[in-house]
Write a structure and sequence with these properties.
Distance between the termini: 21 Å
Order of helices and strands: EHEHEEEE
Largest sheet: 6 strands, antiparallel
Number of strands: 6
Oligomer: single chain
Helix content: 10-25%
Radius of gyration: 13 Å
Structural class: alpha+beta
Shape: globular
Number of helices: 2
Strand order of the largest sheet: 1-5-4-3-2-6
Strand content: 25-35%
């Protein structure tokens, strides 16, 4: 279901550098209004907290959606044991979604 605007979003995370790059990618796309931040999962934390500091919690789970086609993406990673993660296109959000404000440099009109 991905479109031209989000077809390059999915990626594997194998190491800390991949995770940092994935987070920068999502931050840039959110600020560019290509993706919309939806919130974090029950074992995650707000994306704004992660992007603004060094280091991460042991578990990462954040959700984004393409503003053009609606495809939902899950940023997930397990950092404690280093088993990696991904930005994965998903059909639906499993479990509870916690909504928080992710402030971008532009006003979010949605």
């Amino acid at each position: 279901m991905s479109c031209e605007d989000c077809s390059d979003a999915a990626r594997k995370i194998n190491n800390p550098k991949d995770l940092a790059n994935a987070m920068c990618f999502l931050n840039e796309r959110t600020e560019a209004k290509t993706l919309k931040y939806l919130g974090y999962g029950s074992w995650g934390e707000p994306f704004s907290q992660m992007i603004n500091r060094k280091g991460w919690n042991d578990l990462i789970c954040n959700y984004f959606a393409c503003r053009t086609c609606g495809q939902v993406f899950n940023l997930y990673a397990e950092t404690y044991h280093g088993s990696g993660g991904a930005i994965a296109a998903i059909d639906s959000i499993a479990g509870k979604l916690f909504i928080d404000e992710f402030v971008t440099s532009q006003i979010d009109e949605d």
